[in-house]
Amino acid sequence: MSETSNKPSKNNPADKLWGGRFTAPTNEFVEVFTASVGFDQRMYKQDITGSIAHARMLEHIGVLTADECKAIITGLNDIMIDIESGQFAWSTALEDVHMNIEARLTDRIGVTGKKLHTGRSRNDQVATDIRLYLRDEVDAIDAELKRLLEGLVSLATREVDTIMPGFTHLQTAQPVSFGHHMLAWCEMLIRDRERLVDCRKRINVMPLGSAALAGTTYPIDREFTARELGFDGICENSLDGVSDRDFAIELVSVSSLIMMHLSRFSEELVLWSSAQFDFVDLGDSFCTGSSIMPQKKNPDVPELVRGKTGRIYGHLMSLLTLMKGQPLAYNKDNQEDKEPLFDTVDNLKGCLRLYADMMPQIEVKKEKMYAAARSGFSTATDLADYLVRKGMPFRDAHEVVGKSVGYGVETGKDLSDMSLDELKVFSDIIEQDVFDVLTLEGSVAARNHRGGTAPEQVRKQIERLKKYFKG
Ligand code: ARG
User: Fold this and answer.
1) How far apart are CA 402 and CA 421, in angstroms?
2) Is the pLDDT of residue 1 over 70?
C-alpha cells in the first residue's frame, strides 16, 4: 500500500483509464488502499509478454492493422527497457501493473495504445500474468530441488559405509547407513518434484479470452495466443478462467510439503550439530556466532528454514480462506492472492538454494556417529533375530534380549562387549557366531533387501537415482 511514485495523484476521474462514468474524485486513501502496483509490478515481464501476444492475435484476426500492432509491440518493448533500467515511474493513481503499462503505452505511441485492451479485461489479464509468472517460478524451484537432490546423492555416495544410530522416538533404535538416511530425504524430495511437475500442468492453462467474465464479442483466436505464450491448454470456461486461483493454492500446498520436509531435515541438522550429538559440522559459512557467548556456532540456516515453514503454511491458509466465500466470477478480493504467493516463492527458493549450497559443506563425523551407534544397544533386534534363527519363538527371544540389555545397562557394556559366557547366561543356544550379528557392520549388512539399509542396497539405490537424474 505504499506510494510508489512522487508524481501528484491523478485524482481527477477524467485521468483514470476507467473514469468515464465517474464525476467525483477517488478518495485519496481509497486510491492507496486499492492499489496493487507496489507489489504486482514484479509481473511486468509477464504483463508485457501477454500484451504482445494479445496484440499479435488482434492483428491476426484483423482487429489491429499490421502497423498498429508493430507500434504497440515496439512501445511495449521500450517500456520493458525503461522498467529494467529503473526509468519507469510507477504510479499508485494508476492502481496496478496492468494500467501503469497500458497508460504509459498510450503516452508513448498515442491513440493506438488505447486499442491494446480490445477484447480483453484486467480480469483475464491478471489471471494470465499470474500463471505465466508461476510457470517460470515452478521451473526455478524445480531446478533448485534438483540441485539439492544431486547434493544429497553425492553425500550419500560418500557415506554409504558410514554407520549412524537410527532412531525411533529419538531413542537409539538400530544402526543404519548414513547414506541410507540421506537417501530417505531424496525419496521425499523426489515426490515433491513430481507434485511440482503435476501442478505445473494445471498452471500452464490460458485464461486470456475470458475477458471480464463472459468472453468477448470479437472473433478472437485463443489457440493463436496460447501458442504464442507457450500455454499447454486454454481455460474452457470464461467464468472459471477469471475467478479461480486453485492452481496457485496448489503450488503453495506443494510448497508447504517441501517446507515440511526441509523443516524436518533442519531439525535433524540442528540436533546433529549440537555438542550433545556432534554428528556433523555444517561449515562456518552456514552458521553464525553469538554476540555474547564466544564458544557458539549456531546452525542459523536450518533453524531459519524450520522457522519459515510456518509462514508458508500461513500463506496456504490465507489463500484457501481468501477464496472460500467468493461468488463467481472475479472479485477484488483476488488481488490479495499476490503477496502470499510471492512471499511463498521467494522464501521457498531461498531455502532450497541455501540447502543445495550447504550439502557439499557438511562434514560428517563418522567416529562420533559410530560410537553413538554402539552405545544404545542398537543391535538388540539382531540378537533377537539370531535367537529366532536358532529356533526360539520371537517373543521369548525378545525377553532374553531384554534381560541381556538390562545386564548391559547395569555393567555399562554394549551387547558386543559381553563375552560368550556372559551372553550364555541368558540363553545357552547362543554360540560364538553371535558376534557376527552383534557388530554394527554385521547388523547393517544383514538388512540386505530392496529398501533396506545394507550398503550393497544403498549402492544399488544410488545407481537407480543416477539414472533418474539422467532420464
Ligand atoms: N489488480 C487487480 C488484481 O490483482 C487486477 C484486476 C482488477 N480487475 C478489476 N476489475 N478491478 O486482481
Assistant:
1) 17
2) no
For 325-365, where are the alpha helices, taking DSSP H only? 338-358
Taking only the tens place, the pLDDT of each residue in 79-115 is 999 999 999 999 999 999 999 999 999 999 999 999 9
> Residue 423: which domain range?
380-438
pLDDT of 7 above 50: no
Nearest-atom index, ligand 1, CA of 95: 1
Please state, in angstroms and rounded to a whole number, the distance separating the CA atoms of residues 128 and 439.
61
Pocket of ligand 1 (CB under 6 A): 36, 40, 96, 122-123, 126, 332, 334-335
**Ligand 1 atom closest to 36 (CA):** 1
Same domain, 218 and 332: yes
What is the C-alpha to C-alpha distance for residues 127 and 124, in angstroms, rounded to an integer?
Answer: 5
CATH number, residue 112: 1.10.275.10
Are 271 and 127 members of one domain? yes
- Same-domain pairing of 170 and 149: yes
Does 297 fall in a domain? Answer: yes
pLDDT single digits (tens) 220-278? 999 999 999 999 999 999 999 999 999 999 999 999 999 999 999 999 999 999 999 99
Contact status, residue 141 vs residue 199, Cβ threshold 8 Å: no
Distances from the Cα of 14 to the Cαs of 17, 425, 429, in angstroms?
8, 98, 98
| 345 alpha carbon – ligand 1 mean position (Å) | 21
The CATH number given to whatever domain includes residue 166 is 1.20.200.10
Q: How far is the CA of 435 from the centre of ligand 1 (A)?
A: 72
Q: Which atom of ligand 1 is nearest to the CA of 212?
A: 10
**pTM exceeds cut of 0.85:** yes
Distance 359 CA to ligand 1 centre (A): 42
Q: Does residue 90 share a domain with residue 132?
A: no
pLDDT digits (tens, 9 = 90+) for 417-460: 999 999 999 999 999 999 988 999 999 999 999 999 999 999 99
